[in-house]
Amino acid sequence: MRERALADFFKTVGENKSLQKEVGSIFANNEVTFINQPLANLAVKHGYRVTAEDMEQLRLAIKAQKEKTDELIKIIKDQNKNSDELSDEELDAVAGGVGITMALAAAGVAAQSFMEWYNN
Description:
This protein is an all-alpha fold. The protein has helices spanning 3-15, 17-29, 36-45, 52-79, 88-94, 99-106, 111-119. Helix 3 (36-45) crosses helix 4. The radius of gyration is 16 Å and the shape is elongated. It has one domain (3-115). It is 73% helix and 0% strand.
C-alpha cells in the first residue's frame, strides 16, 4: 500500500472544497462495493500514485483500527466504570488511525456511506 500517497491525498481532500465535493459525489453515486476504483481514479487525476488495491488495503486497515479502538474503549470504560468520560491520555490511546477518517468527514462524505464502504 502506498501509505504516503494515500495520506497526502486524503489530507488534500480535507483542505480542498472542490475535491471534497468530488469525493462526496463518488460516495453518493456509486455502490459501496465499487468505491475503490473511482477513489483511486480521482487520486490519480490529482497526481497521486494510488490504485484501487491501495484503497482496499486502506479500507481494511481503517476497519482493523476501528475494531482495535472499539476494544480499547471497552477496556478503558470497564476499568473506569464510575465515569462515562475518557481522560486526555485515554483519548490519545484510542485516537490512532483517525486522520483519514477525519479527512473524509471534512470532505462531507456521509458517515453511513463511509461506514458501509469499510465494513463491506
